[in-house]
Write a structure and sequence with these properties.
Elements: E1 2-6, H1 13-25, E2 30-33, H2 44-53, E3 57-58, H3 62-67, H4 83-95, H5 98-106, E4 110-115, E5 118-123, H6 140-149, E6 154-156, E7 164-168, E8 171-175, E9 189-197, E10 200-208, H7 212-221, H8 226-234, H9 238-243
Parallel strand pairs: 1-2, 2-3, 5-6, 6-8
Antiparallel strand pairs: 1-9, 4-5, 7-8, 9-10
């Protein structure tokens, strides 16, 4: 069995479509989405609707949570100091249809599923660390501590936008990177295919070319700040684009 593992789509519909097409060619039917489906990209509503259409198992990411906190003045995006980022939260909320907001609100922040005899734990950020993340630089000791607190054969996480695959004893950690907003200087979308044969899981990471300019043009058409177009074109995060 092959499973598509996605994270951090960030409203980038062209990237999502390209990756789903590639995953289909690999024979990966089931879709696991680890969250942050919205924000930064120009088509959050299209992303949520497509994920619903393909019956993906979805998580709520930290950016998604902030988008939905419109009415919470003390914890929501009204308190974000950066005007570009505050504008993007506001725009994203209003770009989502009521149906998409309802779907997004229904996503859990973490989930455990069983595939055959294997137990898969899914979370957007780092287990047990509020707002933290797991990336290629995370120490083996830190991952080991997580395995002591979570009963799972496979642990899936996103948030860092940096892909990695690591074994800690008999536990497999996978971060698929970012579908729609890579920040390592490579604009191509990132995802993982998890293959389970009997009890032995294996993983392959992919970087997929997509029509970046289609997403860029949608950002410009929406009248959003140019910095968000450059984030996609350059494959860098907001802060790195600004300081470049």
């Amino acid at each position: 069995m092959k499973i598509t593992v996605l994270s951090d789509i960030h409203g980038n519909l062209p990237a999502l479509k390209a990756i789903l097409q590639h995953a289909d060619a690999q024979g990966a039917a089931q879709i696991l989405n680890l969250g942050d489906s919205t924000g930064y990209g120009p088509e959050p509503d299209g992303v949520i609707q497509l994920l619903h259409e393909i019956k993906a198992i979805n998580l709520l990411g930290d950016y998604d949570k902030k988008v939905l906190r419109k009415k919470h003045r003390k914890t929501g995006w009204s308190k974000v100091k950066n005007p570009d980022k505050r504008l993007m939260f506001n725009w994203t909320y209003h770009a989502l249809s009521k149906r998409s907001r309802k779907l997004l609100k229904s996503y859990p922040e973490q989930k455990t599923i069983e595939v055959g005899s294997l137990r898969i734990f899914m979370i957007h950020t780092s287990p047990g660390a509020k707002g933290g993340y797991l990336g290629p630089e995370t120490s083996q000791a830190s991952l080991k501590k997580i395995t002591e607190n979570i009963e799972a054969d496979i642990i899936l996480c996103g948030h860092s936008h940096r892909s990695f695959v690591r074994w800690v004893d008999d536990v497999l950690f996978i971060n698929p990177g970012s579908v729609g907003r890579p920040d390592d200087g490579d604009p191509r979308g990132s995802y993982a295919v998890l293959e389970i044969l009997d009890r032995k899981p294996g993983t392959e990471l992919f970087r997929i070319q997509y029509d970046v300019m289609a997403a860029v043009q949608e950002i410009r058409k929406a009248g959003l700040p140019e910095v968000f177009a450059q984030v996609l074109q350059q494959g860098l995060n907001y802060d790195d684009v600004i300081t470049k």
